[in-house]
Design a protein that fits this description.
Rossmann fold, single chain, alpha/beta, 340 residues, 8-stranded mixed beta sheet, 8 strands
């Protein structure tokens, strides 16, 4: 079945290790662009960008990363270490012909894309990272907590700063998953909200998860919440909910449980994880956790990238969904400027 620029074709690659479901569109003979989602999402989040770049002649592919969508969701927590996911992506990349690709990524997808580019530089000719800075030493609490802005998060009150929610997974994993699973549709609708400029410079809700006894506090379930159709088309949000009804939140939350393995994997990267490929980083100005504006969170990325372009948009953490058209325009301009 051939893919056209207006149709996302559903495919599954099965190897002895795993199955990766992916969406594909655009000319199969075109240059390869691979889109990697984050938590808690799936490849379908990139629909707008895939349609746009397929129309430009790109061969666009968006996998569901392990634990999400239609891909393998193994039970073991250690199955969600970044090295495992990078290996999934190298298998998919080989299946797609292995030509060096542009890797577009968001959130945990950034960790996968950058890890792949660091360990397998021949597989990437450019990287787009959105909403999470690359940490060449590994994305883990020991690397991100030292970069917390202590003017907002005094260490005696907020030892982990805005990453307290991450710490909560490591200390209360089953409870965190149970709260999210209590009403999966409401959890997803409450998570996918537009950024709020009023929150800039203030303590984020993510910083008080432990003291509140969980993401949703004493109720231990998401409040009834209607999804925001400006982020997800309603039919796509329904697909997202169905996938979480099938697997629950445990597989995707297990990504937060592999700090030690992820740090070790990063230490094994050639040249200390330095990236020689052109990199575009797109920051969400209203992102309460991951914005690199006015703090040190982006410093390791700046030091590790030989050719880094940084831009920002008035958006929260879900920038690829909030600013679909603006992100497309920013990537197009960067591709043109770097002759990619």
């Amino acid at each position: 079945m051939s893919a056209t620029s207006s149709t996302l074709v559903s495919r599954t690659l099965t190897t002895p290790r795993q199955s990766t479901h992916y969406l594909e569109c655009g000319p199969v003979g075109g240059p390869l662009m691979i889109f990697l989602h984050g938590w808690p999402s799936l490849g379908l989040m990139w629909r707008a960008q895939m349609d746009a770049f397929a129309a430009d002649g790109w061969h666009c592919v968006a996998p569901d990363l392990r634990g999400s969508g239609g891909s393998s969701a193994p039970p073991a927590i250690e199955a969600y270490a970044i090295e495992e996911v990078v290996t999934d992506m190298t298998e998919l990349h080989d299946h797609l012909g292995a030509q060096p690709a542009i890797w577009v990524s968001h959130d945990w997808g950034v960790v996968v894309a950058a890890g792949l580019a660091a360990h397998h530089p021949d597989r990437s000719r450019g990287l787009v990272l959105t909403s999470l800075a690359y940490q060449p030493a590994g994305h883990a609490l020991p690397t991100v907590v030292p970069l917390v802005d202590r003017t907002i998060y005094p260490a005696d009150q907020y030892p982990d700063g805005q990453w307290d929610y991450y710490r909560y997974y490591t200390t209360h994993f089953e409870a965190a998953v149970a709260d999210l699973d209590a009403d999966k549709a409401a959890s997803l609708a409450s998570i996918f909200r537009r950024g709020d400029p009023a929150g800039v410079g203030k303590v984020a809700p993510h910083a008080v998860v432990t003291r509140n006894g969980g993401r949703f506090g004493a109720t231990h379930r998401a409040p009834p919440t209607s999804p925001d159709p400006a982020l997800w088309p309603s039919a796509d949000f329904a697909v997202l909910v169905r996938t979480f009804e099938a697997h629950g939140f445990r597989p995707s939350c297990a990504w937060y449980m592999n700090d030690e393995a992820n740090l070790a994997y990063a230490r094994n990267a050639p040249d200390a994880g330095r990236l020689s490929q052109p990199v575009l980083f797109v920051n969400g100005d209203f992102d309460p956790v991951c914005s690199i504006t006015g703090n040190r969170q982006g410093d390791p990325m700046r030091a590790a990238c030989a050719d880094l372009t940084v831009t920002s948009m008035p958006a929260g953490h879900w920038l690829p969904l909030e600013r679909k058209t603006e992100l497309i325009q920013a990537i197009r301009a960067w591709l043109q400027s770097k002759k990619l």
